[in-house]
Amino acid sequence: MGHWGWLIAIYLFLGGLGAGAYLASFAAEKGLLGKKTNLDRVGYVVSAPIVAFGAFLLIFDLGQGLKKPWLIINMFLNFSSVMTWGIYILSAFICVAFIKAFFVWKKRQAPAVISYLGAILALATAAYTGMLLAVVEGIPFWNSYLMPVVFVVSALSTGLSLTSLIAHFFEKHQVHEVRVSQIHLGLVATEIVALAAFFALIYSGSQGTIAKISANMLLTESLSIPFWLLLIIIGLVGPLAFYLLQARSNKKALLTSNDQNSALNSERGGIVSLLCDGAVLVGGLTLRCLIIFAALPVWNGILS
Amino acid sequence: MSPNKRVALSRRNLIKGGLLLGTVAAIGIMPIKVLKAEETVKENTTAKTKKQIGFSYDEGKCIKCESCVRICQETYQWESDTPWRRLLKNDKGNALSMSCNHCADPACAKVCPVKAYSKRDSDGIVIHDASKCVGCGYCLYACPYHAPHIQKKTGAVSKCHFCYNLQDTGSGPRCVGVCPTKALTMGDMKELSQKGNLDYKGLPSSKITNPSMIIIPKA
């Protein structure tokens, strides 16, 4: 057992990240992230390369497929395999996102059908990364319908963080919309709730004792340090506290309207905000790695 | 006026966000339900193939000589850490000779993206075509019995194929043929399933894949 390791975890992370970045820019373009947003371009531009790079990494995890790459084309064949679905979804998403990015880069308006198709495929890409694991009955820890939910929420959160980070360094006009913090607060809070529900479902016993042993590995045993430190504290609770404070301080700034003070605050807030976005990304990658590493087979191959 | 407006706006956002997340959750959950529904439909239709043959292991008759494992290795030359057949033992004296169970609902065939697995309609044997295999390892996670293994030399999966080539020429599988005490036998699952199942000593529930193998525990 345990053939999937770092490469698969990074691939699942990048798949969600690219899809999330596309959706972040899509949301910004539709005006959901505030009126003066600067997030409506960079997410589109980076999404296809990120997902394509993730898919490229996957090739190096193959056995015979690495030596005989022409066999890979057959991965479109089995419609009952979730991996085959993923190959279709990813290929379609990479194509559509590249087209959309081309329009954005040329500063032209892309046809609405391209933007919406890309958004649907982005959601499908993010959901697929969870589905791939969730349908495996041989690994009880993965075999949960909450798995794709956790992955999709994490994809949206990491995608928004990456888009904010890149916009900070590469977009000329800088804006800090309160709306972004509010949305991100909602995403991080939802991810915490989804993750809690995921573990609650496992400890309710509905997925058997093996799933509980996997969960114990994360909560109290061999993988507990990265779980609590990198995922929970750095990746979730830290950003949650920051976005909560920011949403509040913005409200206060509006009430007092002390310009000097709020300018100072927003600059300091800007740096912390970047750190926070970085922390969300660390948490997202840690989540994928931990889920892959905590996989235990339904039977360990030994007579009891 | 402005703070109140702010609050109203963020509440609307909350609803919008909630709707969005609900959609996302639905997208995540729906395919699983579809898959599960597909499975229950499959389970309800009893005969998946015209015939299903399987293994029977009588623990009381087994003398743990491992001839079944040895003849299999000699014939198919698999690497020792990627076995087609194993004799499982515990310290209480129990034993079980097991290979691929040629399941009625093979999880390996379902997840394999390149359709390297095929299930013969004539006898239900699950055959893996190594020439198609990309070595993605998905079937290794899917199979609850650890039957498929990736061979180090080729990077492709290989597993027991019930000596289908020998069976097609009229003789039986090597492991069954070599067993000195007739502990390991084969037969039609219609009859074998009357005598027992594979839910034994910590083995995974046979509901997952419907294995074509039964064990008759020693008294």
UniProtKB/TrEMBL annotation, chain A:
A GO cellular component entry from the record: plasma membrane
InterPro entries named among the record's database cross-references: Electron_transfer_protein, NrfD-like
Transmembrane feature ranges: 6-29, 41-62, 82-104, 116-139, 145-170, 182-205, 225-245, 274-299
Membrane topology: Multi-pass membrane protein
UniProt keywords, alphabetically: Cell membrane, Membrane, Transmembrane, Transmembrane helix
Keyword Membrane included in the entry's annotation: yes
Pfam families, sorted: NrfD
PANTHER family according to UniProt: PROTEIN NRFD (PTHR34856)
Protein name listed in UniProt: Formate-dependent nitrite reductase, membrane component NrfD
Biological classification of the source: Bacteria, Bacillati, Bacillota, Clostridia, Eubacteriales
UniProtKB/TrEMBL annotation, chain B:
GO terms for MF: 4 iron, 4 sulfur cluster binding; metal ion binding
Domain 4Fe-4S ferredoxin-type residues, every copy: 53-81, 124-153
Domain of life, per lineage: Bacteria
Keyword terms of this UniProt record: 4Fe-4S, Iron, Iron-sulfur, Metal-binding
Pfam families found in the cross-reference section: Fer4_11
Protein name: Anaerobic dimethyl sulfoxide reductase subunit B (DMSO reductase iron-sulfur subunit)
Organism annotation: Desulfosporosinus hippei DSM 8344
